[in-house]
Amino acid sequence: MTEIRPIRPYEAEEFLRLLCVVFDLDFDRAHGIFFNEPLFDLRRKWAIFENSKIVSILTTVPLEFGWGNGIGIAGVATDPERQGEGLAGKLIQSVITESEKAGEGAVYLFAKNPSLYSRLGFEPIDEVYRASIAAEPVESLAPVLTFEEVEASYREWSMAHPNRLRRNAQRWKSWKWNLRICTPLAGGYICQEGLTIREVVAPGLVDRWRLPLGSEWFGTKSMAAQLQVPLLNPSFELHFMAYKSPSLPQIFMTDQF
């Protein structure tokens, strides 16, 4: 008997074990993150069951833009003994159908290899790059902004264009779950996680980038171009793919799903 549906509470650990096997994760370390992550929602963890055993899984993440709602797909994994049978494709198609019924018809994902998703109707719409940033080195950071200042600046930025991702309270809780330092930049802010820059909200023109030595950009090609980030030797990381997207989303990798 084959069944496709969201998992139930007593099936969560089986779901996680398959995820850890496929992505080579330590189960004990992943356990705390999996169940405590602010966006954790059993209703969005889908699986194919065969004779009550989970054989393929994925997670959906709600996305809100000015033009409406969509979903991100993450953590697509199939039992290694069952790979190559089309189970992941079958699961994705079922999830897309249910998402369209729920008014979340635009679907997005990040992928190293686009071939599977292209066969399902997804199209590459952008690319994610990692690159050094040509900047004037600084020895110390500018004054750190409060969370309230960052939230207000992001809200103003996101409301200014319908293609920009909106953040509700749950998504902001997830954003705060990681250690991030935000400092002023061109009427907005730059968000730093160690030496990695995943988010920059800059309403004004950045004439000179001043960052700690070794800072690097991790984000989409389109957002780097929009912000005029001076990238050095960018290297490809991921394809950003979409199914029935009305436009190119403006999204930072701080919201990666």
Distance separating the two termini:
31 Å
Question: How does the major sheet shape up?
Answer: 12 strands, mixed
Helix-strand pattern: EHHEEEHEHEEHEHEEEEEHE
Gyration radius, rounded: 19 Å
- SS strand fraction: 35-45%
Query: How many H/I helices?
Result: 7
Mean pLDDT: 96
Categorize the overall geometry.
Answer: globular
Number of strands: 14
Briefly note the structural class of the backbone: alpha+beta
**Residue windows where pLDDT falls under 50 for at least 5 positions:** none
Helix share, percent:
25-40%
Summarize the structure.
β3 (53-65) and β4 form a beta hairpin.
Question: Layout of SSEs?
Answer:
Elements: E1 2-6, H1 12-23, H2 27-36, E2 45-50, E3 53-65, E4 68-78, H3 87-101, E5 106-111, H4 115-119, E6 123-133, E7 136-137, H5 147-159, E8 165-166, H6 169-176, E9 181-185, E10 188-193, E11 196-201, E12 210-211, E13 216-220, H7 221-227, E14 231-243
Parallel strand pairs: 4-5, 7-12, 11-13
Antiparallel strand pairs: 1-2, 2-3, 3-4, 3-8, 5-14, 6-13, 6-14, 9-10, 10-11
Can you walk through the features of this model?
The chain is of the alpha+beta class and 257 residues long. It is 27% helix and 36% strand. The longest helix is centred in the middle third of the chain and has 15 residues, at 87-101. The model has no long low-confidence stretch (mean pLDDT 96).
